[in-house]
Every structure is written in structure tokens, then in C-alpha cells.
Amino acid sequence: MEEPHRISSPYRRRRDLEAGSGRPQEDESSDDPFDITSTKHVPVHRLRRWRQAALVLNASRRFRYTLDLKKEEQAKITLQKIRAHAQAIRAAQLFQAGQGQQANGISKRPTSSGDFGISQEQLASMTRDRDVSTLGEYGGVKGLAELLKTNLEKGIHGDDADILARQNTYGSNTYPQKKGRSFWMFLWEAWQDLTLIILIVAAVASLVLGIKSEGIKEGWYDGGSIAFAVILVIVVTAISDYRQSLQFQNLNEEKRNIHLEVVRGGRRVEVSIYDVVVGDVVPLNIGDQVPADGVLISGHSLAIDESSMTGESKIVHKDAKDPFLVSGCKVADGHGTMLVMSVGTNTEWGLLMASISEDTGEETPLQVRLNGVATFIGVVGLSVAVAVLVVLLARYFTGHTKDPYGTVQFKAGKTSVSDAVDGAIKIITVAVTIVVVAVPEGLPLAVTLTLAYSMRKMMADKALVRRLSACETMGSATTICSDKTGTLTLNQMTVVMAYAGGRKVDPPDSNSQLSSSLISLLIEGIAQNSNGSIYVPETGGDVELSGSPTEKAILQWGIKLGMDFEAVRSKSTIIHVFPFNSEKKRGGVAVKLPDSEVHIHWKGAAEIVLASCTKYLDANDQVVAMDEDKKMYFRKAIEDMAAGSLRCIAIAYRPYDRNDIPLDEEQLTKWALPEDELILLAIVGIKDPCRLGVKDAVKLCQNAGVKVRMVTGDNLQTAKAIALECGILDPKADAAAPNLIEGKAFRSLTDVEREDAAEKISVMGRSSPNDKLLLVQALRKRGHVVAVTGDGTNDAPALHEADIGLAMGIQGTEVAKESSDIIILDDNFASVVKVVRWGRSVYANIQKFIQFQLTVNVAALIINVVAAVSSGDVPLNAVQLLWVNLIMDTLGALALATEPPTDHLMHRHPVGRREPLITNIMWRNLLIQAAYQVSVLLVLNFRGRSLLNLELDSKDHANKVKNTLIFNAFVFCQIFNEFNARKPDEFNVFKGITKNRLFMGIVGLTLVLQVIIIEFLGKFTSTTRLNWKQWIISIVIAFISWPLAVVGKLIPVSKTPIHVYFARIFCHRRRSRGS
User: Fold this and answer.
1) pTM of this structure
2) Catalytic entry in 288, 305, 422, 483
3) Is 618 part of the annotated catalytic residue set?
4) pLDDT, tens digit, 9 for 90 and up, residues 630-658
5) Among 957, 933, 931, 936, which Cα is nearest to 945's?
């Protein structure tokens, strides 16, 4: 399930509708329409195929949470229209620019609106038409800011009154959303079940005939009881579905709520995207989503991908000539700040979102497979129901069916038409009710139920699920490729070691050991070559740092060296910026000083920057050529710091001749900053401690058969030190090659070599995002189910490619989040492990429900079929079967599909994606229980009168007591068996029972309702009151299922799936015939 923002990302995964072309499909050739191991990259024809193959009684309910293929097509058409509109505007803009005309040929004066100097219509028109000339008339960005009462440096005041005034004048950054379905819609959908409609028709016919033959006082019971039972099933089903939809609605709200930084009152504050207002100053960095329509204030190498609006994949560079920014687009490169001009439905993105009907449907592999299971069981059940119908009708119309008094019910030529029709209706009702019980309509929907429950609980465990299928796929994960910084470590960085002036500085912020000239250059480089910022409160108090953790650590070090951030930045002018690049692992800036001198500052991975340095600044302010010995000294310093798990950053600069700088603005944007002949200023070691509990989380994964691999851009020695600390590497066994590898070494291997190497890799250092992608591809080719963590824009392809993409909620960019399946809200690896537990829990809960439901199916079918064929009567009538269906489908799913995960799940190996849903252990358990229930209840059916000492009673009363006891014992067996289903492979089925209050509540409710049905609703259910002995017999019969389950678990089962045995026997017979 994905939020509407997914359309916006140029790096996003394609929706299932558009996917499937990018990689070989492992299940593409399968003949089984339900054999879809992953819905993440499945083509649309496969989705249509399984829908057509499924046996469905209520399509609107069954397919409610699957992708609506028709709506998806409509959304694509709407999107194309909006894009065509955007392209037309762009063409008109280019034409006007070519003609040298003003936008509308007339001068425009700003019209005041509310407390502000310009109206919303003028702002929206300017951004929509990309009208640079009108912007110029208003005095450019500065003039516009004055009209909007905004300070371009400090932003808006940001107090409640200011924000409210802006929202009243220009609107809020929201768009009208489709209202959630009402309860009545779910009630209406629950009515759509074909079998329930037939039962209602039968109930009405029975009601009419009953009243006609027996009078209104007695004649309405048969038809009325069936109608009431059907209505009860419909209402309970609708309530369950409605509660489930509310959970999804809340999760969707959470997914749409992007958080970003704005500048208000001179400080950067984090706000929800919904709280952005016109006049806000918004900093933009690589991977950010443009939160509203606006205009560029300033930027460096700022490139925007507008493909979400225009459909063109071309990257658009933003500058004074083309300063307008469109909501919903992504920052592809560089950084800058924007002034918000339009929000909500006044933006093209808002109009698009309001016009597209959001479809949150998405089938999961488990859901598809369960539709296959339900179809198979349904076909069997339908066949049985038809057989029962034929047998009962044949017996009835040939005069072999007798009433409780022994009188033949149908005599040709003597029985009235209304009596014959009434008898036939009762037989049809029983047959249809068998179909209701036999077709497990609730089985595929139980997946949605357990996923909705799991997703809500995972939010509490700091994991936001964006894609339903990721929940269950995580249970099959065999390897997790994790980032180091912020995921395995705390992301709380401090400079703890420094080398400057050609020697070690201890402590690292000791001014006295550094010359004033060196400090001045360091401060200049730190302040100007930074994407962070410093806010100093006017009232005093601690300074506030913003930016990435690495930036903040270096800024803090600069402050300790005496840096006045704002003063340094105002002294010199930035000429050109090379934003930090995860491929090159460094970033640079060219600045012009007051005396017109130009300095180029670089900062980045220590050994990479060091390799570009030919000189260093010594303690006496002398620029000294770097000989081999000095280079070895610095390399050794880097290695020592890395071995101590420190992140090593080098800071260097070089003077540059201003005459060599391009004068033309277009050439300047393409100018590559010189990165050779650098002068080394300092190398710092930044400490980022391991997170508490990470070692235990890694160990838990390893015990569960999930290999954890660290993929980091850091130095290999730093990565090794952290990996040893986290337990990813064993110091005795594998803290050396081939378990450790550098990114460049891995990417230089051939495809076959890469696959072999991928199996062994535990740590990859100095990796680029592309190396991470290559690792994921190699592991998937080896059959691994791969989970990958990522936070940067360039991680998007790896997150997309992986079976489960995990984006970081705090440090992750919007591009990374949109390419992910799950967002880890606290960036903590321990939360990733909790997701694995929940994934396994989803699979385990579904298996529990299957075991429970199939036991009821098998037992109910066999009891009714055998009784019908042998005696022409069925012990479980239509109303009773509907009650059993309610216990089995809705209440059973609620009880078993909402079991919380246990530690026992993490002592198993990952679930194979082609592993059978019904394991040999489940077959053993359900066959033992079903055989026991069938045996006991059939004995009661045929020998009940003598066993219960009812020979002296009238035949009618004796039969009623016997059938009531069979019904009561059958329901009690299901209640007791619900406990057995909780732990299919454990002896203690009561372990952790008190933690699942819902389970206890449902069991209690079922018991109370069963007592009420037997004792007070006999007229409706065709039952009679039982005495205390008969109640004890019912309970004892059900209780025996507990010790029986324990004995059954002592029977060993083969690990080879049962269907494999049948396949072997079938193949053997074919070979025998062939020979």
C-alpha cells in the first residue's frame, strides 16, 4: 500500500501496474496462477490471472485490499492530462522567451490581500506560468518577500497569529481527500455474498410457507431463524471489516505526513508538510521533496527532477533565469533555499492529488497463495455440497426421508405442493450452508487482518510500513544489508582526535597548539564548506546546530576553535559549490575573500582528500611540500583512528587565481572545482558510538538464520572496528578477507566472481550506492531474500531492487523513503530486527488460522455428508452451521490472526517463499483433531440415543437432545481447538495467553453466546435445553482435544512436504506406465 506521494519520485519504484520489466521474474513461467512469490515487481497480467482463477463468493469483499486495476488505469490517464498541461505551459514560456514578450504584455501591480501585499491569484498565476518578468516587476525575490512580510534570512516570525493569518489568506498545505468508507458501505459489501443471498431467499420462502401451513405463531421460526443468522453474520463481518479499514486509514495518514525543516524567527525548525505556509523559507537538499510551489532565493548547483509533473526525465537546473519550483518534485542535486508562494490546492501538485482517487490496495504474496488454497478447498466443498443436495433430494422425492416420528415425508401424489416445496427448500438451505462453511471466504482476508494488526503494532516498534507485502516478506529475509552510521551507531558524533599543523593536537580543540593563520583557514573552510547552520539565541543560551551529524560534529569543533559562523560567512562570498557526493566522498566550495583572493576548500573521506594533497600547513604557518614520509605519517594516523572505530575526515584548501574562474553564469555552473595540489589543513577523528542493544540484535538475527552485512561508505578499518563491536564479525574467525572487502574491489569483479564473493561478505567499506546495488543483485541471484537499509538519494536503486527496502526515518531523504517498503522511524538496527519478528509473526498467525479453519471445515463436511448419505438427515442445520461459520471465519481470524510475536519465532530459520503454507506439522495436527471430532460426533449421531440413555424418551425429543449435544460438543471442540492452534509445534499451548486479551475476550464471548443459544434460543436454532450431565459430556469431549494434541505432537513428521511425496508417487506411476 502506497501513499500518493509515490507518484512524485523520479527514483520511485514503479507501481505493480508498471513493474516487471526490469529484472528476470522467477515465477513468470509458472503454470499456477497463485504462484506469485513477490508482488513488488509483478506484471499486471499476472495480477489479472490469479483474480480470474479464484473461486469467490463475494468479490467486492475479497478484492477490497487488492490493487484496483481499473482505478490505476484512470489515475494514469489523469496524470497524463496534468503533465500535458504542464508541458503546454513550458512550451508557451519558451515561445514567450523567444519572442522577448512579457507574460501577458501588460504591467501587473500587486493587489493586497488580508494583511499581505499580494493576492493568492497573482502568486498562483506567477508560478503556474513561470512568469519571470512579473517577478521582476515586483522587485524580484526580495520584493516578493517584502509583500509577503518575510525576511529572506530569518524567515517568517512563525508565531501562532502569523501562521493563522497566512493560512486564512493563502490556504493551508492540504488537499481534499477522499472520505473513508462509512460503516453502511461495509454492510452493503457484506450482503454481496452469493450464498448469503440464496440463504435469505430460502429464508423468505420458508417463512411464507411456514406461516401458511402452521400459522404466524409457530410458522415463522424456521425462516426467521435463518434470516436472523444471516443478518448476524453480515453485521459481525461488516463491523470487523470497518474496524480494519480504520486502522489502514490511520496508517495512511501517518505515511503522508512528511516532516521537513523551515526557517522561522532565524532558526531552523522541523514542521509537518501540512504546516508549511506561504512566505516560509525552506532549505532544500539532495533527496528532499519540494513541499509547495515557490521561487528560488539562492542555490548552488541546484537541480530539480520535475518528471513527476512533466513526465520528462530531464533534470532542470534552477537559477535566476528559471527560479520557479514546483510542489511534489525532487531535489536531484545541489542545495538551496526557496520562498513558498502557493500551498495546497493552489499548487498543481495539490490539484493532481485532489483529482486522483487514491487506491491503497495491494495484494501480498501470502494473500494470493491463500486465494489459491481457498479456491481449492472451495471447489472440494462445492462438490460435496452438490453431492449432499443430490442425495438428499433423491432420498426425499423417492420417499426414503422420514420425520422424527418415522413418517415418510414425501408421498407422490399425496403430499401437497407447498409441503414438497418446503421440504426441498430445507434441503437446499442445508446444501447452501455447507457451501458457506466449506468455502473459506475469510481465509485470504485473514492476511489483511493480521497485517493491519501488525502494522499498527509495528508503529509502536518504530517501523512505518509503506507496502503491505513487506510485512510478510520480512519474515522470509535471509540477509540484511545494513548501513553503519546511525543504524548500528548512535549518530551522535563528536571530534575526539585531530591532526593539524603536521602533528597530533591533544586535546583536539586546543587553540594554543595551533597558529592563528591555521585556525583562520580552518574556520573559513568549516563555515563555508558546510551544509549545516548555527543558530545563536538572542536571549543567550546554548547554540543550536543543524545539518547532518558529521556536519554538526565539525561545526561544534569549529566553535571550540573560536568560530563565529555568521561573521565568517558574511566576510566572503561563495562563488561555486560542489555538494558532497557519495561517489567521490567529498564536497568543495570556492569562496571569494574581501581582498578578492579566491580559496577553494575541500572536505571529505580522509584518505581520498589526502591523496589529492601535495602540501600541508605546518605549526609555523609554513606551506611545506608533503614528502613520502609525511604522507606515511598521515596514513598511519588515519589507520590508527579508523582502528579505534573513528570516522576520519580531512580538511584541505588551495588558493586559486580569480582570472581562471569562468565569468559566464552558465559556464560557472558547469565549472569543475579544482581538486588537485591541495594543502592539508587538518585530519579529524569523529567518534560515533555503537547503539546499545545492537550486539544483542545482531546475535538474535544470526540465531534466526539471518546474516547481517554492514555496507558503509566509511574507511574499511573503521567499518571493521564497528563490525567487531557489534558482533557482525567474529574476532577469531572472520575478521579478514574475503569477509571484508572494499567497494572498488567488489565492483571490479566479474558477475560470477561477484556472486561468489557476495555470499562471504560481512563488511563492505568505502562502498558507493552502486556497490550496494550490485551486492543486492548478486545476493538475489543466489536465492537470498534481501533486506537493505538506506538513507540517501543514491540508495534509492538498491532500496527498489531489494526484496525489502528499509529507509531511515530521521536521516533518510524523501527519495529514499519513497523507494522503500518500510521506514525505520528511529534509525535503529534493533527496530529492523523487530520488523523481522513481526514478519515471521504474520506468517505464523496465518498458519495457525489455516490449521484451525481446516479442522472445522473437514469435520463439519464429513459429519454432514456421512449423516446425509446414511440417514437422509443432517445433525447440524443451517442456523447452526452459520454460527459455526461465524466462529470459524470472523471470530477465529480475530483471535488467531492477532497473536503477538514471540521469541520462539526467532529460533527458527527464515520461511522459504515457496515453502508450503500447510506444513506436515499442521497436517498432523488438523487430521488428528478432525478425525477425533468426526469419530466422536458420528458415534453420537448413530448411537447417541442409547449412549445418552434416551431410549425411554419420545423419538422426536431424543433426536433433538442428541442433535443439540452434537452441535454443542462440536462448538466446544472448536473453542478448545483454538487454544491448540495457538502453538502448532509447542506443547504448552497456554504460554503467553494472558498477553493476548483479544483472544481471551473472543473465547469468552463465544462461550457465553453458545450457552445463550442452547439455553434460550432453542426455537431459532432447533435445539433444546441440556441438563448438567449433558453439558459436562460436551465439555469432556472438547477437553480431550488438549491431551490428544500433546500426544499428537510426539508423533514425528518428515521434513519433506507432503505434496512432494504425492508428486513422487505420481511421477513413479507415470514412469511405470511408460516403461
Assistant:
1) 0.79
2) 483
3) no
4) 999 999 999 999 999 899 999 999 999 98
5) 957
